[in-house]
Every structure is written in C-alpha cells, then in structure tokens.
Amino acid sequence: MSRLDLGAIEPDAFFLDLPEDPEGLVRTAPTRGPVVVPSLPARLPMSRLAFSGGRIRYLVYRFPRYLVRFRDTFDEYMRSLSAKTRYGVRKAIRKMDEHSESSFEMREYRTPEEVGPFIEAAAAVSALTYQTRLLKAGLSDDEATRARLLKRAEAGRFWSFVLWLRDQPVSYMLGTTRGRIYRHDHGGYDPAFHKLDPGRALHGMALEHLHGSGQIDLLDFTPGGGAHKEKLSTEVVDCVDLVYFPVGPKAVLLVGSHILLQGVSRGIAWTLEKLGLKTKIKQLLRGRP
C-alpha cells in the first residue's frame, strides 16, 4: 500500500499545503494499488465512502492535529494559554527544581555527533514507558533509527531534547524541522517520576527555548489527540486519513472489515466509559497506582 508523502513531492511542503481534494496527487502515485493520504485537513464536508477518480475513497480516521503558532515572545505565548495550563507548566518545572535541589537540566541535541548520545538517553527512558512495554511503539536504539536520525542531523533537520535529573534522563522530546516548522515526532518520560511531571516540565522548557531561538514559527504536535497537546496548542486542525482503493471485491472486503472492527472497538470503549473503568485502565497501562 503506497503512502502519499507530500514532503517527497515538495521538500518544503507541510500537511496544511495539501489540496482540499487530493485526487490529482493520487493520480501521480507510482502504483495502481491502494494509496494512503495521511493527515488531510478536512476543509470540506466528506462522506465516509465515495467513488473518486476511478477509485473507492475511504475515510479511515478523523482526528485532531494540534499546533503551536509562535508569538513574538514566550511570555506572550504563555498568556495565550489557560491560567490552569500556565500554572501546571510552571509547577512541573518548580517540582523538578525542588526535588533535585536545582540539579536538573534540559540538554539540546542537533548535530550528527549528538545523535548517538540522544538515542542512548531517550531509548533508556522509552524502554520504561507503556508505549514500549505494551504497544512496542517506543523509540528504539537500533541501526535503522540511528541511520535515520543521523541523516536528518546531517541535513540540519534534527532538533531534540532530554531532561536530566542529576545524571539520569527522565524525559525526552524527539523533533524534526522543515523550514521554520518544528515537528514533535516522539516523546516520553520515566513513569517512576510521574509525580514530578517531567514530561510537562520538558515541554515547557523546550517551547521556551524554541521561542527564544527565533528559528521556528510553528510547532506541529503531529497526528492524534492527547491532553498535553490540547492544553499547550494555540490552534487545532481537523484532519482525516484517506485510502484510495482500486475498484474490486478486495477493496469491498477490506473496507467492510475495517468498519466492523471500528464498531466493535467503539462499543467496548463506550462500555468501559459507562462502567468508569476507562481512566483506571489507562492509569494501569502507564504504571500509575
């Protein structure tokens, strides 16, 4: 299944640059098989299923994509957030400071030489998260990851952070730049320190640093929801993932199966919510009491 990457078509393009109707771009895809169009801004009403350009267009997911539009100063950005969010960020940094007796710091990683030290620290933290333990979706320290990040660093597009408590990494933020846009690719924190809120502390410190650099206009939290994304963002874009299938029985089978599975998943989520178990399960997965 081919994935339509706007960045490969236009190196400095961004998901907001996708056309309202991507049918023309789909025609350029070098395949007659299914084509995935990820993170299309849903500017127009769109049905779940449609026949478009000789293909079946299927809307797979609808989701928010949160952005931070940078202001002239970090203080101005902070004033754009809710009072509760501002307090939470400052409190997290203060807790880290008090717990460590001022022996904590955020380290920045940008050069090819800094890729290795970043991955070693970030992967050590990631290995402790529920994303890695249960979903196998964490940051791995392997040859493929090192090669990918090294290539970004050599192109001047690698920009990441690790929050250290004394000599121990407790949270990380992996990022990539494209022009004056910063993409938040991945992040995580050591659940043993969750009461100190190291993830929120790092987000606050990194955002202040990026504001002060004068090199970034927009931060993209990438697809998907999340309380921290929603609270720290200044705007949200409603997006959809689309798949264009060639007309045929295989497409009907795949689309029908996916719709059925989504219905079952929503039913389970609704039941857990009604029983008051959804939040408890999330806490259990994250290793919280």
How would you describe what is shown here?
With 289 residues, the chain is of the alpha+beta class. Among the domains are: 71-216, Aminopeptidase, CATH 3.40.630; 248-289. The chain has helices at 6-9, 23-28, 74-79, 83-100, 112-126, 130-133, 143-154, 198-213, 227-232, 249-274, 278-285; strands at residues 2-3, 35-41, 49-52, 55-69, 104-109, 160-165, 168-178, 181-189, 218-223, 235-246. The radius of gyration is 21 Å and the shape is globular. Mean pLDDT is 84; it is low at 7-12 and 280-289.
What are the SSEs and their pairings?
Layout: E1 2-3, H1 6-9, H2 23-28, E2 35-41, E3 49-52, E4 55-69, H3 74-79, H4 83-100, E5 104-109, H5 112-126, H6 130-133, H7 143-154, E6 160-165, E7 168-178, E8 181-189, H8 198-213, E9 218-223, H9 227-232, E10 235-246, H10 249-274, H11 278-285
Parallel strand pairs: 1-2, 8-9
Antiparallel strand pairs: 2-10, 3-4, 4-9, 4-10, 5-6, 6-7, 7-8
